[in-house]
User: Fold this.
Amino acid sequence: MNIPEIKALIFMKEHSERVPGKNVRPMCGRPLFHWIMDSLIRSKYIQEVIVNTDSTSIAEDARRNFGAIIHMRPDYLLGDKVGASPIIAYDVAHTEGEYFFQTHSTNPLLRMATIDRAIETFFRQITYDSLFSVTPIQKRFYWSDGRPVNHNPNQVIRTQDLPPILEENSCFYIFSRRSFFQLENRIGERPMLFQIDRIEALDIDEELDFAVAEALMANMIAGR
Assistant:
């Protein structure tokens, strides 16, 4: 299989609203962001990891320990209200290459094998212009007005037999330079939905998430 050069994009801020200092907070003996960086640099297909950050200490750590390319965040991208698209636009505009894999420091359980499988799946086809990870959920959902979303309340079946609803878990995205700038979005016009395990998709957004992720990581390490 002929897979072109792929650059990984990852964003990290020094400040975090709900979990203070989470990007560098120790998890099982390592700063949190080291876990995803380790998976990225071990991938067979990712040639370069680009870290976009406002933190000189994160930049120095990422460069020293992982050989990352650093994009220090310009003033207009500073703050907690800046979304992903402007940051991606900055990184892509300041980087050569056509294909990108974007993920987050807050997904420490994402495995290198899953990264490689997603890349292989994407480049094995010609129908889709982008890919993003999803998690299947089989539960009974309702709209706020009481209407059922994915089931018939008069015909109760087991939840495991319900048609799954796919959640965009924001764990990772694959896209080209062309598809991104056409829509200014990491999700293109014809995206592929790539299912991953909900444990790998766990995102650290609150203190409880950190505790759960650390317990799962400790379990994984013990099982090696």
